[in-house]
UniProtKB/TrEMBL annotation:
It holds the Pfam family BBE. Residues 519-528 have a biased composition (Polar residues). Belongs to the oxygen-dependent FAD-linked oxidoreductase family. The lineage of its organism: Eukaryota, Fungi, Dikarya, Ascomycota, Pezizomycotina. This is FAD-binding PCMH-type domain-containing protein. GO terms for molecular function: FAD binding; oxidoreductase activity. Gene3D superfamilies: 3.30.465.10, 3.40.462.20, Uridine Diphospho-n-acetylenolpyruvylglucosamine Reductase, domain 2. Keywords: FAD, Flavoprotein, Oxidoreductase, Signal. Residues 76-246 form the FAD-binding PCMH-type domain.
Amino acid sequence: MTRLQRFAVSSALLLQSLAFASPEPCLNGLCHFTRNKLASRTVASELGPQLSANCNVYGPDDTQFGNCTARYDPFFTPKIQMVVQPATEDDVPKIVQYASANGIPFLAMARRHGMTSTLSEFDGMQIDMSLLDKIEIQPDGKSAILGGGVFAKNIMEKLWDAGYVTSSGSTSCVGLLGPALGGGRGRLEGYYGVVSDSFLKLNVVLANGTAITVSETEHPDLFWAMKGAGHNFGVVTSLEMKIYPRGVDTWYYKTYIWTQDKLEAVFEASNAFHNDGNHAGHHLKEMAFNMGSYTMIPSISETEGVIFWSFVYRGSKEEAQPYLDAFDAIKAVSTEDGNVPYPEIPGVSGTGMNSTLCDYGLNHVHYPAGLKVWNVTTQRQIYDLYNEKIREYPEFQRTTVNMEDYSHEGVDAIDPDTSAYPWRDRGLLSFIAVTYDPNPALDEAAIAWAQETRDLWNAGAPDLLPSTYVNYAHGDESAESMYGYEPWRLEKLRGLKAQYDPDNLFSYYNPIIPNMNPRSTHESNFQGRQIGAKSRSRGQ
């Protein structure tokens, strides 16, 4: 069954393409065909003349193809037939129109950090947004225009040097919009909310190639949806975003490494720090972010994981110290601290360009959980399981179990009904990343370990419905766990899908409405990756 047999294409758009693309006459505009297997040179000859001078089209035989398609996590990999790089925003509608008219699935990417299994259902054209990297501070100093391909490091550095900051994800190498369209968690959310709370307007290309501006006054319902479920609705070619005075010249950071016998003390201190999930009465806005992990450091122990933890404070050591006294009282193997400018904070706290979070090419089998408080008993169970699995599978030595605790004041201050992001009450994000060199013989064990860890977190919070930060999703979670259990949320999102993407062309990143005919050949490679049956029933 061809793709255009699954999706109704308007006659006007199809006839426009057929003028130069159809291999056979099509007089009534209702023909059904796909040209998904076109050679890149054919696409270049047909589409290229419509695009600006610096656009590129690459196929698998081109030397640039590998760099354009290399992924942080190759475990679930979309099948890319060709790469088209727009050089200007005006190129994107033409690319989308061409792809839609010719039955070619398309997927826009910037930094290729997505890890969800639903990406493996894709087979088609990658729209590489990386050339759309403008950063333009507006004359009033209250906003900036950002291209659809910008990423965290560039934004942080350019704005900081000009005296500003804005919200972005916590990892330097990750694009801005990938996380932001799913809400976006980051170090400044205690001040300004999740990343999408700083959106002012978005320039969006819809599935039919129409370019529209989306804001609180233009298509406001779609603006609501783009702030938390935006991957389902369009390609963002640029956006205007709030920026803020940068404030203090340096941020204080401190990292600790503890051995496992300190585990209970660490998590009890952490729960006390954020008032057992209540946040009230704590100076948490300045203590922007703290994160920990179970990880192997062979120089400390070759048989047991250690507990790594980092804190970052927007201010001086002296101001931060009262909040760290309880952690200083727990004897550490080592500590490190200092004051650095904000753009250097990722590098000193484990999320910079040289961190493992920015190493491409390793499998990272992922499962998350959203929490309000650390269950200390559960954290011990997960740690013991970590050591057990490392002993059983030495190939998993680079695995980390990650715990993130964000400042929450700015997130709490925003009415949860004003955006599609549903999890403002979950301050703690946790996830396991079972990490190893690609090896199909290990895949089933990796998935089983990751699932067991996620299930332990959820079992340790029996009063909470399981929640999934959509950007950390494995891909087999329910739509409700990603987009909210309140019935009105998914009802509204599905109504907007019918309005703005009736053919469900944007259905490859944790979709609201599942892709009903995912690419089956990839899933059949390995039974443990066969999420198709689950994904097709998500939220139904």
